Amino acid sequence: MIRLIDSLSYGNRLRGMSPMWKCGFAAALFMLSYGSHPPVQAAIFAWMIVWVVRYARIPLKAHLVMLGTACLFFIASLPALLFEIQPGSAAAPGSSVFVLWSRPYGSVYVTETGLHTAAALFMRAAACLSAVSFVMFTTPVAELFQVMKRLRVPALALELMMITYRFLFILTETAHDLYTAQRARGGHNGFRGRLNDTALLIVRLFAKTMHRYKGLSHGLVSRGFTEEIRPAPYRAGAVPVRYRLESGIGVAILLLLECWLRWRGIE
Questions:
Q1: Residues 92 and 217 both lie in one domain
Q2: How many domains does the chain have?
Q3: Based on the domain organization, do 248 and 222 belong to the same domain?
Q4: Sheet bearing 106-111, strands edge to edge
Q5: What is the spatial distance between Cα 84 and Cα 108, in angstroms, rounded to a whole number?
Q6: How many CA atoms lie within 13 A of 217 on its CB side?
Q7: Would you say residue 14 lies in a domain?
Q8: Residue 87 and residue 111: Cα distance in Å, rounded?
Q9: Are residues 131 and 186 in the same domain?
Q10: How confident is the model at residue 29 (pLDDT cuts 50, 70, 90)?
Q11: So what's the pLDDT on residue 32?
């Protein structure tokens, strides 16, 4: 998935636009998504799909797969949001209750409040993810590092992020090679075999990754590394007037809608 996102970020139609403008636009929508009402969040989610799929020409399937993968973390938290446990023989409190399991020593039920909370959190997460996906699909990571440097991010944190991002590709490549070699030798057959081969793969993956890290360190020293990794110079591309107008008008409309919802007292 990380290779797909990296390749799409370099080949989209918004690639040449200013990365600072794209990050600022996404940050404004992210903050608005976090504190707005569900109708505004739904509008942001739909609007970001237009920007990513139509303007940047990112395949809809890749965009939905990324959003769906991120939503798995939200799905993992649903049981804590939806299910309530009532010990003993007392009836479940409240009138709007869906009883899932009931026994003399306890019951499991879902309340209407839990459903509303889960739905509200889902809309907030979807809107925030759509704003983040706009930056992910339209701005290469190298340009994100340039933006962070202009925003005065500490050099140590920036270098750690650069090295970590570099080693993500090394880690996935090494894991794929080891897994292919194990499969070619008849590994990963049966449940017990998969457990043993996976444990062996993790051990060898750590050893090979450390070996690649030492090679990278020696390569940096041989090229005159002076304890500072400098990203490429920042280059601000032009932003078409149409996109500037659409983004400004769109954010203004969303803010007006949010103000109207708050004025009406709509939850």
A1: no
A2: 2
A3: no
A4: 83-87, 106-111, 97-103
A5: 6
A6: 6
A7: yes
A8: 16
A9: no
A10: very high
A11: 92
3 state DSSP class of 208 = helix
88 by DSSP, 3-state: which? coil
Q: Is the pLDDT of residue 191 over 80?
A: no
Structure tokens at 31: 């903050």
**Up-side HSE of residue 234: CA atoms within 13 Å toward CB?**
13
Find how far residue 151's CA is from the centre of its chain.
21
Regarding whether 5 and 106 lie in a shared domain, the answer is: yes
Residue type, 257: L
What are the tokens at 154? 């500490």
Asked if the structure places residue 220 within a domain, the reply is yes
**Angle between helical axes of 112-138 and 60-76 (0-180°, round to 10):** 140
Distance, CA of 113 to CA of 81 (rounded, Å): 9
Residue 75: count other Cβ atoms within 10 Å of its Cβ.
10
Q: For residues 118 and 35, is the Cβ–Cβ distance under 8 A?
A: no
Q: Give the C-alpha separation, 252 to 266, whole Å.
A: 19
How many residues are given for the chain? 267
The H or E element that residue 183 is part of is helix 155-184
86: left (phi over 0), alpha (psi -120 to 50) or beta: beta
For residue 147, is it within any domain? no
For residue 19, what are the domain limits?
1-139+238-266
* Residue 120: both structure tokens together: 């509200």
Which residues make beta-bridge pairs with 106? 87, 103
State how far the Cα of 122 lies from the Cα of 63, in Å rounded to an integer.
Answer: 17
Do 168 and 216 reside in the same domain of the chain? Answer: yes
In angstroms, how far is CA 204 from the centroid of its own chain?
Answer: 29
pLDDT-based confidence at residue 227 (cuts at 50, 70, 90): low
User: Per the structure block, which two tokens stand in for 158?
Assistant: 């920036």
